[in-house]
Amino acid sequence: MAAKKAKAPPLLRTGAKAGLRVLVLSGPNLQLLGTREPEIYGRETLADIHERLVARGKELGAQVTARQSNHEGQLCDWIGEAGGAFEGILLNGAAYTHTSLALFDALKAVGLPCVEVHISNPEAREAYRHTSRIAPACIAKVSGFGADSYVLALEGLVRWLEKKKAR
Ligand code: DQA
User: Fold this and answer.
1) Which of 21, 117, 125, 126 gets the highest tally of CB atoms within 10 A of its CB?
2) Residue 131 clears pLDDT 70, i.e. is over it
3) Ramachandran angles phi, psi of 138, nearest 5°
4) Is 96 in the active site?
């Protein structure tokens, strides 16, 4: 008799587990995606990315709310208001990633799981992009996959939240 194969855990179950709410925040200059340095950031607009995230969220049973601001304080306000309204955050802090103690403090204060997202791979770019101020307040980072980084980060966050729920 052939040995029984162990059943692999489902990578990403879809549909049933509604009730997850994910806040997606993008920082300065990301409203210019589509025309901003396309050789680095690609041709997809932020609206295109938000659309993909909402659609993928639906498949995964997660409601996605996506916002962008050029203002550090606005991003801090949204993070600060996220407790109780969202189960997790995706944050592309853009240039604030490398400078903002305020964003780090906001993430620590609210205590929600956050995934740091980048379209490019900052570690492979200029030295001043190699440091992330927000990384120590995040559960994970997805970078370098172009606009797909956002979608991969959403999949990872949903999986992380589901695993946490099952514990
Ligand atoms: C970025 C990388 C940052 O270094 C840069 O300042 C950005 C975009 C990215 O998504 O690749 O604005 O966060």
Assistant:
1) 117
2) yes
3) -115, 155
4) no
